[in-house]
Amino acid sequence: MVGMQEQVFVWKIIELHDKYVAYVTECFQGHTLFHKALKEAFEVFCNKGVSGSSNAELLATFCDNILKKGCSEKLSDEAIEDALEKVVRLLAYISDKDLFAEFYRKKLARRLLFDKSANDEHERSILTKLKQQCGGQFTSKMEGMVTDLTVARDHQTKFEEFVAGHPELNPGIDLAVTVLTTGFWPSYKTFDINLPAEMVKCVEVFKEFYQTRTKHRKLTWIYSLGTCNINAKFDAKPIELIVTTYQAALLLLFNGSERLSYSEIATQLNLSDDDVVRLLHSLSCAKYKILNKEPANRSISPNDVFEFNSKFTDRMRRIKIPLPPVDEKKKVVEDVDKDRRYAIDASIVRIMKSRKVMGHQQLVAECVEQLSRMFKPDFKAIKKRIEDLITRDYLERDKDNANTYKYLA
């Protein structure tokens, strides 16, 4: 399912739920039997996949579309609040709430970091609703992310004051840095890209400023999330290019060289081949051909040679050059699976620490009960985690009964 279809599908589920809730409350006076039937029916329906997507992902995408700039303008504040309230109600039927949380967190990160969020109040409002529905642990990281952005704005103001007070440090480039707390945000790959000298100076100036704020924190730069505005001088007219930090680093190489081979670019940037291919494709084969390539085909190979396309022009004076999107779904699912293993381990250890000795069936049942608020653990996964904890000397099997475990302090 894509884009508009996803939105329509979730709106239809909301309408369907509203309709049957009205039947239960008005026609059947809210009788518990009908409430139970409604709950069971929606649990079955909401835990089925749709065209390769889980409903957890669809609900997270629906929220993202409603909360993003450009989408929310079509709805009144009351309509947005109502829709968010109803999505959170639907989430109650979904077993994989942790999967929703991870998809939602990834999308929230993009809204916050790229200034795509339409309204801070709505962002905080849905977190309050999610907290009431799923508990404080569910939203703690997301709340931390929203708070980080508020603190980051203060940092930025102080940084600008610092540069104004030390003109000798001014890098000559307008720089905005968002400092994030590692534990709150999704994990991002950090590469040691070779930045151009202009950017290196910016980084050094900010580091010097940050040292005046705190001596006990280490900054890890995530250049893959950065954006740059570059003034490109073409023959016809100058055009402002809005690009990623990686794209900017690549383009700035052409200030010093007219022609560069694929291998020269890869060596100078110190990026993986996958990243270099994506960057070069976006700048030479996509809609805006800022670079000319030889041979002039639509695929990137190690033998290609590139040069700045001085003849490029466009009717706009400011253009955004997107990178091909990366499918995040696989990474989200992997992260959730990893977190589930930790959660199952922690649950088993908690139970066994309290009980000391326990039968297999009873341990599995208690583990499922403890974790079912966030996800429905698979029996095989629990068995596998028990075996792993035995090999790590947290538990041992009873010598007289293989189906009974003992806790090893």
Span of the ends, CA to CA: 50 Å
Taking all Cα atoms into account, the compactness measure Rg is: 26 Å
Count of the domains: 4
Shape: globular
The CATH class label of the largest domain is: Mainly Alpha
Structural features, described:
With 409 residues, this protein is mainly alpha-helical. It folds into four domains: 3-134, Up-down Bundle (5 helical Cullin repeat like), CATH 1.20.1310; 152-223, no CATH class; 226-320, 2-Layer Sandwich (Ribosomal Protein S5, domain 2), CATH 3.30.230.130; 329-407, Arc Repressor Mutant, subunit A (Orthogonal Bundle). It is 56% helix and 9% strand. It is built from 14 helices and nine strands. The chain has helices at residues 3-27, 32-46, 55-67, 77-91, 97-113, 120-134, 136-165, 197-213, 245-252, 262-269, 273-284, 329-355, 360-371, 379-391, and strands at residues 227-233, 238-244, 259-261, 291-294, 305-308, 318-320, 357-359, 395-397, 404-407. The strands form three sheets. The chain has a three-stranded mixed sheet. It has a three-stranded antiparallel sheet with strand order 3-5-4. Helix 3 (55-67) packs antiparallel against helix 4, helix 3 (55-67) packs parallel to helix 5 and helix 12 (329-355) crosses helix 14. The radius of gyration is 26 Å and the shape is globular. The protein starts with a helix and ends with a strand.
